[in-house]
Amino acid sequence: MSSNIDYTSSSTQFTFDVNDSTLFKRDDRNFINILGVEQLNTLENISLLDVFLSKNKVIEPHYHQNAAELVYCISGAAIVSIFNPFTKELQNYPIEPGQVANIPQGWWHYEIATENDTHLLAIFDAPTPEVILGSDILKFTPSNVMAHTYCLDENQWKKTIAPIVPSTYIGPPKDCNRVKSTSEKQKEQKDPHHKHKNKYRPSQFTNPYPPYQYPNMNPYMNPYGSNPYGSYY
């Protein structure tokens, strides 16, 4: 029992409806609900994200600087991809109902739904899951720094990242109009029905070389950290 919690207070909470706490909503089939200490003030070192995805939607690459994450599949299916910083390998774990994937604290990762109506529960060992998003890193790192560091053409880099919206959370964006690669164009020329086929295959998401102005984000989740106990204690 934590000494920080006053269990005699009339403001002490023991129940909460997570459906009333939306972190991000792309549409009615793709959204994330959140439960942390700001929603339920008797929580200690635990919080969760309730994630709903349709097929081929992606929880964008990111990492949690303050917590490990356990992803449990409730329905549908997904591939959880984790970059192992010790082996320098991208590890891909397909999960179906009843299966889990564990992501150590601070490890770069993302999730891709491979079926419609995918429902994932992400459980964290922290009172609030903090996050650094790939879209924010790409958008806010100065272009001249990226160009100088990686020997890039700065103008090309700016053009490449121009469509990226900070805090994408669930991609691709609804207004995505991606420029097709040469190989995709060649496939469509050879097979005119190509575009009507399933665009993505689960195996495609295991490729190790795999992104709305500020979303409808829950005001209690500061992506870059805050007082985990808020004003409750």
Termini Cα gap:
14 Å
**How helical, in percent, are the residues?**
10-25%
Shape: globular
Class inferred from helices and paired strands: alpha+beta
Mean pLDDT: 85
What is the count of β-strands? 12
DSSP strand (E) fraction?
25-35%
C-alpha Rg (nearest Å): 20 Å
Q: Detail the poorly predicted runs.
A: 196-200, 207-220, 224-233
Query: What is the strand arrangement across the widest sheet?
Result: 1-2-3-10-5-8
> How many DSSP helices?
4
H/E element order: EEEEEEEEEEEHHHEH
Instruction: Summarize the biggest pleated sheet.
Output: 6 strands, antiparallel
Biased composition (Basic and acidic residues): 175-191
Organism: Lysinibacillus xylanilyticus
Domain Cupin type-1: 21-158
Pfam families: Cupin_1 (PF00190)
Short summary:
The protein has 233 residues and is an alpha+beta fold. The protein has helices spanning 134-140, 143-150, 154-161, 182-190; strands at residues 22-27, 30-35, 47-53, 58-63, 69-75, 78-84, 89-95, 100-103, 109-113, 118-124, 132-133, 170-171. It contains four helices and twelve strands.
Q: How would you characterize this protein structure?
A:
The protein is of the alpha+beta class. The strands form two sheets. A six-stranded antiparallel beta sheet has the order 1-2-3-10-5-8, with no helix packed on it. Strands 4, 6, 7, 9, 11 and 12 form a six-stranded antiparallel beta sheet that branches. The relative contact order is 0.20. α2 (143-150) crosses α3 (154-161). The protein is built from four helices and twelve strands.
